[in-house]
Amino acid sequence: QVQLVESGGGLVRAGGSLKISCAASGTVFGSNAISWYRQAPGTRRDLVACIMSSGRTVYDQILKTRFTISRDNAKNTVYLELNSLKPEDTGVYYCLRSPDSECRYLQGTWGQGTQVTVSS
Question: Which of 31, 39, 62, 80 has the lowest tally of Cβ within 10 angstroms?
């Protein structure tokens, strides 16, 4: 059974940085695209970034200047580095394993999420 576990979230002050992780078990996901989404209270879950099996990346156009997605297939882990954090970046960050090598909007297996809170 595929399981994704996010970690690394926490409380950070505005302007700070975090690096969150998504580790997979029960599968080797080198051939799958992995996405990061985030969801603030009362809002929908929005795409932040996606990295395909080829290493090609897709970003939200506004967030791409501050966030970086990467993957380490040997560790079955995908990372999201969050820089210059703002209070509006607060939310639960989820990773999503795509059913194949391409980024599929909201399709696949979700992790349980990790909370990121940015204080002003």
Answer: 62
